[in-house]
Write a structure and sequence with these properties.
Blueprint: E1 5-10, E2 15-20, H1 29-36, E3 45-49, H2 55-63, E4 68-73, H3 76-87, H4 92-95, E5 98-102, H5 109-114, E6 122-127, H6 142-148, H7 154-165, E7 166-176, H8 181-188, E8 192-201, E9 208-217, E10 224-225, E11 229-230, H9 241-247
Helix pairs in contact: 1-2, 7-8
Length: about 260
């Protein structure tokens, strides 16, 4: 790999990420919160849609020692960072349970199956889809645009694919901005139920900046709004105790 990169520790050094330096998407708290939505005792096969260099998927593998993870990424440049991540010596204890699939999660039917995403082949799917409007993140960096800028109908495409590849009663977790709630719930409708939403606030007196949504394939149960995650105490820029535990793989977001 000739592109500039950094090697960054996550979960207090339990895994490492090789990610682009100066371009593209760099993983952080969003990926850790998404991974923390998966129950701690999860022991099945999980797909990380739009995995990038692999942060969220590896965080699941780090916290759930019996899980098996497939990093699904369309960009060959970002998937090359994921390959470098899995080859890094500090990840040798996880690499045997993690694989990479270069594929477009927006495909449907036979094209999706041919790309390696077979029907009912996963127990869980997680996704951190591009959720910014084009005017929110104006950037000449094409790699960053792919990771950040939402195209019309993206939630519908990604959640449709998740509904196809996740077995009945399997799980889905995703992270988005609060303003995406309406199209997100519309895409879940008829596919995933028993949705639980955790709003994420920078501080207790500030508006939510993210929502984490978890749901169950083919469930008809209703929606639950969970207590929020507060990232910072009022007088500090450090993470709150709960946010720090989630960021470092020491706790699940939903208490399981």
């Amino acid at each position: 790999m000739t592109a500039p990169f950094t090697i960054d520790a996550f979960h207090r050094g339990n895994f490492w990420l090789v990610q682009p330096d100066g371009k593209g998407h760099r993983a952080g708290m969003d990926a850790m919160m998404l991974a923390a939505a998966v129950p701690s005792g999860f022991s099945g096969r999980l797909a990380d849609f739009g995995a990038g260099a692999g942060a969220a998927g590896l965080a699941v593998a780090s916290r759930c020692p019996k899980s098996r993870v497939v990093l699904v990424e369309l960009s060959r440049e970002m998937s090359s960072f994921a390959e470098r991540t899995l080859a890094y010596s500090g990840n040798s204890h996880l690499a045997g349970r993690v694989s990479i699939l270069v594929a477009d999660v927006g495909l449907a039917g036979k094209e999706r199956v041919a790309a390696g995403l077979a029907d009912s082949s996963f127990d869980y799917a997680i996704m951190n889809p591009p959720f910014n409007a084009r005017h929110d993140r104006a950037t000449p960096d094409l790699l960053k645009q792919q990771a950040h800028i939402m195209e019309d109908g993206l939630f519908e495409l990604w959640i449709r694919s998740a509904a196809a590849v996740v077995r009945p009663r399997g799980g889905l977790a995703l992270i988005a901005r609060p303003q995406s709630l309406q199209p997100l719930l519309a895409a879940l409708g008829g596919r995933f139920g028993n949705a639980e939403i955790v709003p994420v606030h920078a501080r207790a007196d500030a508006p939510a900046i993210r929502i984490i949504v978890r749901a169950v394939r083919a469930s008809r149960a209703g929606l639950t709004l969970r207590p929020p995650l507060i990232l910072h105490d009022a007088s500090s820029d450090l993470f709150s105790v709960r946010a720090d535990a989630i960021n470092n793989g020491r706790a699940s977001l939903f208490g399981d």
